[in-house]
Amino acid sequence: MKRITSIDALRNFANITRCFIHASIPYMVTKAPIWPVDDKGSWFFDFVIFENHLFVMELFFTISGFIFAIQLNLNPTRKVVANILKRILLPFSLGLLIIVPVVLSLFSLSQYPGFTFFDFQIIQKSYLSGWNLAFENFFPTAHLWYLYYLLIFYLFTLLVKNYFSWSSSISVSKIIVLGISISTTCMFFMDRWLVENPLTMLPEIPSLLHFYFFFVLGMVIYNSPRILDNLKKNNKRILALGILFAVAAVIPQVWFGQIDLHYYLFIKVIAVVLYCSASHLLVLGLLGVFTSYPIRESKLLRYFTDASYWIYLSNMPIVALFQIALIPLEISVYYKFLISFFGALMFSLLSYELLVRYTMIGKILNKKRKRYL
């Protein structure tokens, strides 16, 4: 399959944004119970995480749907299924057994003061506690929930793919209205005024439907050049409108939880509509912007694209380890963020080059490569 450099660049942008979020979480004022580290905080990180959270996973699913449509168009179903089993199901299954217990062990490891967590017995005890935590909570998927949802989307789409013929005639404006309507309805069944990542093997129907729309959106855009051309022509307008809604969406979040307010339901409606509008407009705007400008294929872009899957798998536990190690240091949270963000990213890239790219792991995640001296 010929590589589409604009989609490669967009995927790398989404991946870096996701790494940025992970590196920022401990340094928010708001405590995140799903993260093993809480280290003081700055409202700056609350704001940027909220803004990036509006679109990043939705963008991933849109890209996945786009690429899936390409695969269905170029390959027989049997080959597509084999690719899913190899590149998604196998890494997800191994990740549940190898990566997730390590991620869960970090909750225990972060509780030890100073640098005592380097003690082997403490590491062993924390690792066992990770397994206990997994079984007590119906085995959390941690950051691998994305692969879990993708497997569900692939299976369902293969069963109903013949019913997508209507999509070629839909307009961009109708896509936006339909998407916002679906996401807004879903969010009314969520606990918060934002889309939270699912935590366990039990799918959460509201978020499942929300993300599935973006997956289908990617397929629709690929199958309708007219829609993609329309996005390219109006990319700046759509993106600017998305940014406007995104900034406005922060304001009503201040009143979340204040259910005794007389106009609480009205505030909730405003918050949900602003959030969902920003989410859809940002995804469509970014897709339009990246596909509008010619992006040259380069060795650097290709390398980062090849490494992106491994970065996705490895970055979360690595950045959390950096953040745990930085807890005892009396330095600014901005310095801690920079160290954990760049340190974890460089470590993921280094481990990809030395341990993954030319090994069986790299063959599973991408394709077999030979090392040239």
Q: Can you tell me the number of structural domains?
A: 1
Query: Beta fraction of the residues?
Result: under 5%
Give the CA-CA distance, first to last residue: 27 Å
User: What integer value in Å does the Rg equal?
Assistant: 21 Å
Question: What does the secondary structure layout of this molecule look like, with pairings?
Answer:
Elements: H1 5-24, H2 43-53, H3 56-74, H4 77-109, H5 120-136, H6 145-160, H7 172-187, H8 205-223, H9 225-233, H10 235-250, H11 264-292, H12 299-326, H13 333-356, H14 360-365
Task: Describe the 3D structure.
Helix 3 (56-74) packs across helix 11, helix 4 runs antiparallel to helix 6 (145-160) and helix 7 packs antiparallel against helix 8 (205-223). This protein has helices at residues 5-24, 43-53, 56-74, 77-109, 120-136, 145-160, 172-187, 205-223, 225-233, 235-250, 264-292, 299-326, 333-356, 360-365. It is mainly α and 373 residues long.
